[in-house]
Amino acid sequence: MGEVSTVGIDLAKSVFQVCGSDPSGAVIFCKKLRRDQVLSFFSTLPRCVVAMEACASAHYWAREIAAVGHDTRLIPPAYVKPFVKRQKNDMADAEAICEAAQRPTMRFVQGKSAEAQASGVIFRTRDLLVRQRTQLINALRGHLTEFGYIVRQGVGHVGKLVELVADPASDIPPVARPVLTVITQSLQALQSQIALSGSRNRAPGQD
Q1: What mean pLDDT is predicted for residues 159-177?
Q2: Nearest to 66, CA basis, from 82, 81, 83, 47
Q3: Are 180 and 149 in contact (CB under 8 A)?
Q4: pLDDT at residue number 82
Q5: Cα within 13 Å of Cα(64), Cβ side
Q6: Which CATH superfamily is domain 6-102 in?
Q7: Do 43 and 7 meet the contact criterion of CB atoms below 8 Å apart?
Q8: CA spacing 20 to 30 A to 181: which of 70, 110, 119, 126?
Q9: pLDDT per residue over 97-123, tens digit each?
């Protein structure tokens, strides 16, 4: 095998495709790797550029491959597509990634640390919980409207909804109250989880 300057890797869950090229851009190898072979393979290569699409697990693999001595680069998938020369498959994708990485005007995505990714997980989880809370509030408000109870919109008025469901004197049919109680309990649990996720996403020293 000749001198390797750039390697393109098509990421997958189990079987990865890699293509390497020399300084002139000529492809000198293309091969398949099992997941457990990836790091050992790159450990045997001299330092080079290893490029991959900025997709699921890319930041993880960029960190791992960089740790064995390579210069890792992430490319937006849309920038790789023009370099696919034949019918789309994993090997063609790896070759296209390799070629795209060699373009002097190519734009790359900044790699993320594990800590930065963790912050993203917290943010997205909190966003999911907030959307779930909104769905439950709207459902509960709609159900109570059917029984003649109108409560103003907004998270600040959730307490009134909860009180109506819990109040034995409210005009809610007994058969419906247990189901509505499930919603109010879920709302209260979500509110606690949202508050917890918010506190975990604050920088040290913030209130």
Answers
A1: 93
A2: 47
A3: no
A4: 92
A5: 14
A6: ATPase, nucleotide binding domain (3.30.420.40)
A7: no
A8: 126
A9: 999 999 999 999 999 999 999 999 999
User: What does the alpha-carbon distance between residue 38 and residue 18 come to, in Å, rounded to a whole number?
Assistant: 9
Distance CA 41, CA 158 (A): 56
CA distance 106 to 75: 8
What local confidence, expressed as pLDDT, does residue 201 receive? Answer: 61
Tokens of 14: 């189990």
Going by C-beta distance under 8 Å and a sequence separation of 6 or more, which residues neighbour residue 104? none
d(CA 83, CA 81): 5
In contact, 17 and 92? CB cutoff 8 Å: no
Residue 142's nearest CA partner among 176, 116, 114, 119 is 176
10 Å CB burial of residue 91 (0-12, 13-18, 19+) is middle
CB 109 within 8 A of CB 54: yes
Helix (H, G, I), strand (E, B) or coil at 30: strand
DSSP letter assigned to residue 54: S
